[in-house]
Specification:
The complex is a heterodimer of chains A (about 270) and B (about 525).
Chain A: H1 2-20, H2 22-25, H3 57-93, H4 95-110, H5 113-123, H6 130-144, H7 147-162, H8 164-171, H9 176-211, H10 224-229, H11 234-237, H12 245-267
Helix pairs in contact in A: 1-3, 1-12, 3-4, 3-6, 3-7, 3-9, 4-7, 6-9, 7-9, 9-12
Chain B: H1 2-20, E1 25-30, H2 45-54, E2 59-61, E3 68-70, E4 73-79, E5 84-89, H3 103-113, H4 121-124, E6 134-139, E7 142-146, H5 154-157, E8 179-185, E9 189-194, E10 213-218, H6 222-230, E11 236-237, H7 242-250, E12 255-260, E13 264-269, H8 279-285, H9 288-297, H10 300-307, E14 312-314, H11 338-347, E15 351-353, E16 356-358, E17 366-372, H12 376-390, E18 395-401, H13 403-413, E19 418-423, H14 434-437, H15 456-470, H16 474-491, E20 494-506, E21 510-511, E22 530-531
Parallel strand pairs in B: 1-10, 17-18, 17-19
Antiparallel strand pairs in B: 2-3, 4-5, 5-7, 6-7, 8-9, 9-10, 11-20, 12-20, 13-19, 13-20, 14-20, 15-16, 21-22
Helix pairs in contact in B: 9-11, 15-16
The chains are: A mainly alpha (about 270), B alpha+beta (about 525).
Chain lengths: ~270, ~525
């Protein structure tokens, strides 16, 4: 188990270094079009070959990881904090607070977000930089993705409030923030972390899907989502397995984080 | 010797006839459910396919020769400068349900088609002026139709008018074409069966069509359609994307490039005076020098070679060179010349400052190109144009929007800067582009619904368009159209990018296929298609 954990840490550190050093490791840049060598196979000049416009896939993967692995965790953190607040408050107080919170959760789960997102894109100005566009996209995902997680946290908090140790704590005079800090938060940590890690790949994939609505990462900036969108050409994937690397990277990163998470959960 | 030739010819004819009696079921895919079975209300591609396969028309345009050929009508005569047409009809024809066909049916169809309450886009093509159409039934086999004003390209327009039965209880489901709709499962498939009363016979006297039935599976995903084609589950693909074409070609599947189509892909700038854009940007977009400079900076050869894998040609103008009669052959492709582009821009006061192009007021030249999300070819073209324009210091932001949002910006709010879209030109006669080129038209995309022409060149195009629509003389109309093409080439309100090739896939088991660049590319001669067993 320890070896796997060390390997996971090593992978994450390595990936972070690679992403931070993208400028040096992929001097071709993510937007330069080598039009005479489009859809090239891996070579010394292009480690992962080139895409349909002749752009270096290695550079696009590194910069795409930089975008997605920075913004998706931030959005996941934002959504987890929101879920923790709404779900935690609902479970802690119960009664009408819980009913109101659940109503809000149900409302968020039932609203057709797809249409709302289309409307949001329609009102956004057209002349925004790709960086601003991708930030807005992940901010929206973070803002809208909390409801399902809040329901899980609410149920967890409610159960905890009925547990014997919380009754004992309350009988001992614990209340308010002290009760939350010492008893609720440590016990809800696992659920919150699980929601956090689950949200990261969900947001990366969601960003890829939003691209179909024009609300993803704008060209020429890459993201893991936009690179995964290329896999839609299922007819083309078989003879070019290197195109699966963005998917492999996503799986490795999420798995590494989860190995660490499991360890932390065991500790708590 | 002569006798030997005769015997050989008879044997060959018998062999063809025996082979042609193969029957069987042809299968291919529709990208969506047909929205209507009423041939007069057709607007979408799936309904158009059903109309073509089932509808009987008075004249049929041969997709290879582009000549009108007799179908339900044996002959016709246009008179009164294109206001009147008289048809002599074939004798003894019946609809698929056995109802007899007569001139009454043609009169009924034309009255229905031109009824303003029906809102038929097929009927709109015949509407050259206000007033009513009059159909005189001269006899059961002869009819004369009078239009209120001359109709351009009158004969060929009848290629899209499937004749309904005035008496059949099955209404529009009774057909005069080679097939009729026999079975339908919503969202899944349609089964067309051979029309037992179809009139056409082959050279050996055998009744057509050769096929017993056609199964049309509804399949939205072109990738899955390609996989099904490779597995032999479908035998035709009418429109293949360049990427899939290359893949199928590499896998030795039978695919054909029928040549440059009449479809165009173009970029245009918003020139609407009331658009919510800064005044300096409006000044750029209305400048001919600016538009021509942008055009000269776009490497169309690269677009055709990279985005379309070589299955496209750099576009020259409104009409594709494949439309040989109407294309103005004096025009040449716009050169890729960034030096000349910068010269043109300097004439308008633009100058390079470092790596940025600035206008005479010092504004950095930056604009967005909007296109419809999900169209990979257009997204790629926009990205390539983005890099091309960077060479002359212009920053482009590529924006993909869902089609309805894009349409709203193009037609309602006019809140966009440049747009990249394409036109599917179904009609060979450019008269169908009246709705685009008249300055008062809704689809005059760069500046629609003008009360009076905003520029002298638009005024000249208006004049030429009205003149060609009112003329029954094809050669005179060609002269008018040549001038319109010349003006459009010089002014570039639309910066035409490429004409895509018509790429099709036809399984080797399908015999007698002669793919055309014109719709419907693979099955335009469906009655003579046959399957090898």
């Amino acid at each position: 188990m320890k070896t796997i954990r060390v390997a996971a840490i090593a992978i994450l550190v390595l990936m972070s270094l690679v992403v931070l050093g993208a400028h040096y490791l992929a001097p071709a840049g993510y937007e330069q079009q080598f039009r005479e060598t489009t859809e090239a196979a891996p070579s010394i000049h292009h480690l992962l070959g080139t895409d349909e416009l002749g752009r270096d896939r290695w550079a696009r993967l590194l910069y795409g990881m930089r975008v997605s692995l920075t913004l998706a965790p931030l959005a996941a953190l934002f959504t987890t904090v929101l879920a923790g607040l709404v779900g935690g408050i609902a479970g802690y107080f119960g009664g009408w607070t819980e009913r109101c919170s659940k109503l809000l959760i149900d409302l968020f789960l039932s609203v057709p977000w797809l249409f709302l997102l289309i409307t949001v894109r329609a009102v956004l100005p057209l002349n925004v930089s790709p960086e601003a566009s991708v930030t807005v996209t992940f901010a929206l995902l973070g803002l809208l993705g909390w409801a399902a997680s809040a329901r899980v946290i609410c149920a967890g908090a409610k159960d905890l409030m009925k547990s014997e140790f919380v009754w004992m704590a309350r009988a001992s005079g614990f209340s308010g923030l002290k009760l939350v800090r010492l008893h609720l938060m440590p016990n809800l940590r696992g659920a919150l972390l699980a929601q956090f890690w689950i949200s990261i790949p969900v947001f990366i994939i969601a960003e890829a899907n939003l691209g179909a609505l024009g609300l993803g990462v704008a060209e020429p900036l890459p993201s893991l989502g936009s690179l995964l969108r290329e896999l839609q050409d299922s007819v083309m994937v078989r003879p070019e397995p290197w195109r699966l690397l963005p998917l492999a990277v996503l799986i490795v990163v999420i798995s590494s984080f989860q190995v660490l998470l499991n360890r932390q959960e065991i500790r708590t | 010797m002569k006798r030997h030739y005769l015997i050989s010819a008879v044997l060959l004819l018998c062999a063809i006839s025996a082979f042609a009696q193969s029957g069987g079921e042809l299968r291919f895919c529709l990208r969506s459910e047909p929205k209507t079975f009423n041939p007069l209300l057709v607007e979408d591609e799936a309904s158009e396919t059903i109309r073509y396969l089932t509808g009987g028309v008075l004249v049929r345009v041969n997709r290879l020769t582009l000549k009108a050929e007799p179908d339900l009508a044996t002959s016709w005569k246009v008179s009164e400068g294109g206001k009147r047409i008289r048809f002599k009809l074939r004798d003894g024809l019946k609809y698929s349900d056995g109802t007899p066909f007569s001139a009454e049916d043609v009169a009924y169809t034309m009255q229905q088609l031109m009824d303003p309450a029906l809102h038929s886009s097929t009927g709109d093509a015949f509407r050259s002026a206000d007033g009513k159409l009059v159909a005189h039934v001269i006899s059961a086999k002869e009819i004369e139709i009078d239009f209120p004003a001359p109709v351009a390209n009158l004969v060929n327009l009848f290629d899209t008018v499937a004749i309904l039965s005035a008496k059949s209880p099955q209404k529009e489901m009774a057909t005069l074409g080679p097939f009729h709709v026999a079975e339908r499962k919503a969202g899944s498939y349609l089964l067309l069966k051979r029309n037992p009363y179809y009139w056409k016979k082959d050279a050996a006297g055998k009744q057509l069509p050769y096929l017993d039935s056609i199964r049309l599976d509804i399949e939205q995903n072109p990738e899955i359609e390609a996989m099904r084609y490779k597995r032999g589950e479908v035998q035709l693909i009418n429109t293949v994307s360049p990427a899939i074409f290359e893949k199928l070609s590499a896998d030795s599947a039978s695919v054909r490039d029928a040549g440059a189509s009449t479809d165009t892909e173009q970029l245009w700038f918003n020139q609407v005076p009331s658009a919510p854009l800064p005044a300096y940007k409006k000044a750029w977009f209305t400048s001919t020098n600016f538009r021509r400079a942008i055009s000269e900076t776009i490497n169309r050869n690269d677009l055709a070679r990279i985005v379309f894998h070589g299955h496209a040609v750099p576009a020259i103008g409104i009409i594709s060179p494949s439309n040989k009669f109407w294309f103005n052959s004096d025009l040449r492709p716009h050169a890729y010349d960034t030096t000349d582009a910068l010269r043109r821009l300097q004439q308008d006061g633009f100058r390079m400052q470092g790596e940025t192009l600035k206008d005479k007021a010092g504004n950095a030249v930056e604009f967005s190109i909007a296109t419809n999300a999900g169209n990979r070819a257009r997204e790629s073209m926009a990205t390539m144009i983005q890099q091309d324009l960077k060479k002359i210091g212009i920053k482009v932001n590529v924006v993909t929007l869902d089609f309805n949002s894009l349409l709203e910006r193009m037609t309602q709010s006019y809140n966009y800067e440049a747009c990249l879209l394409g036109f599917q030109n179904v009609e060979l006669d450019p008269n169908s582009q009246m709705a685009v080129w008249l300055s008062s038209a809704d689809n005059h995309q760069w500046n629609p619904n003008q009360k009076s022409p905003a520029t002298p060149w638009e005024a000249e195009i208006d004049k030429l368009m009205r003149a060609q629509a009112a003329s029954g003389d094809e050669h005179k109309r060609k002269q008018y159209w040549d001038r319109v093409q010349q003006i459009a080439w010089e002014q570039e309100p639309f910066i035409y990018l490429v004409n895509k090739d018509a790429l099709v896939a036809i399984a080797s088991s399908v015999k007698n296929a002669e793919p055309s660049v014109f719709r419907p590319q693979t099955f335009w001669n469906v009655e003579t298609l046959a399957l090898a067993h």
